[in-house]
Write a structure and sequence with these properties.
Oligomer: single chain
Structural class: mainly alpha
Strand content: under 5%
Number of helices: 5
Distance between the termini: 77 Å
Length: about 130
Amino acid sequence: MLGSALGKTFTSVPDYYSSYGVVLAVVAAGAILVAVAFTAARLIAPHRPSPAKLTTYECGIDPVGEGWSQSQIRYYVFALLFVMFDVEAVFIFPWAVRLEALQVFGLVEMIIFIFILALGLLYAWRKRVLRWV
């Protein structure tokens, strides 16, 4: 009675679970398709290993020296600054869209936010992090 009063019809439990059968069939078909594709590629692809093919290379240049080297920390800091200002752009766009509704409070909050980011940029500039050389 309650189901018809709300304008909905309730189905039985087996009918409910049979709808998941379709999802399971699609997932199984996808898994089988991937397995067939990988098997066909393994059977059809030529396999002729040679010492030249097994050497490591980077960008087409033969490796020189050891495979492990240290990176300078300034590159990571530079990347962190990029992420910081990228996040700033993500926050400024929705703020600019809703500025009229936020009124003066929203303007003051964004000025504080930009001021804090400017302090971070000033600090990075004073520490000479932004020099790439």
